[in-house]
Amino acid sequence: MKPPIIIINFKAYENSFGNSALELSKKIEKLSKEYSVEIILSVPATMIYRISNEVDLPIYAQHVDAVPLGAHTGAVLPEMIKDAGAKGTLINHSEKRLRADEIDDIIKRLKALNLESILCVDRYELVYPFSLLRPNAILIEPPELIGTGISVSKAKPEVITRAVDEIRKTNGVYLIAGAGITSGEDVYKAIKLGAQGIGVASAVMKAKEPEKVVEDFIINALKAMS
């Protein structure tokens, strides 16, 4: 994981699976190589194997469950996503909340498997205590802004700046900003406020020309880092 970090959560849209998802992933891969910026794709569990085998990008799961191997019908386990080709996973997304003890268990298991983790939190007060669990990165996303098109960097810049202050108490954990990011300007401002990267979903997945959106994000992320 290397700044500027760009993670695109495919979620469960019409183009999040099948040939549409693979085609989009390949377009993003081309941009990643052109600009030498690593882009993480967080895809449905059913697409991890297919995309990781055909696209040279870090592929993440969107969620894993904190249950051991055994009789747990429907569970997605860290061991499963590694076998499918994932390099890591999101944890505790606002649409897939977990208890603190579950988060701790998952991060320990991921580390044992040499998998990366991006831990989602909804407020800056949680950044420091959860950073002590040593995920690779913390993604701060005020849930009220997710999918609204109103970016956290514009509507609530203090959320990022306060989160930056909190993450500095723990060395080696990156801070990623998300929620409502829709433009290159949003990306630029988030990184200038101190984030090491951005997380997006609907801005890319619902765009008519998603590759142009991703390219705009990359250009502005690099500009902000320079």
From TrEMBL:
MF annotations from Gene Ontology: triose-phosphate isomerase activity
The EC designation for this entry is 5.3.1.1
PROSITE patterns for the chain = TIM_2
> Where does the chain bind substrate?
N9, F10, K11, I146, G180, A201, S202
Which enzyme class?
Answer: isomerase
Q: Name one Pfam family in it.
A: TIM
Annotated GO biological processes are: gluconeogenesis; glyceraldehyde-3-phosphate biosynthetic process; glycerol catabolic process; glycolytic process
**Where in the cell is the protein located?**
Cytoplasm
The record's HAMAP family line, in alphabetical order, gives: TIM_A (MF_00147_A)
Role description: Involved in the gluconeogenesis. Catalyzes stereospecifically the conversion of dihydroxyacetone phosphate (DHAP) to D-glyceraldehyde-3-phosphate (G3P).
* NCBIfam families registered for this protein in UniProt: PRK04302.1 (NF003302), tim (TIGR00419)
**What is the protein's name according to its record?**
Triosephosphate isomerase
**Gene name of this polypeptide:** tpiA
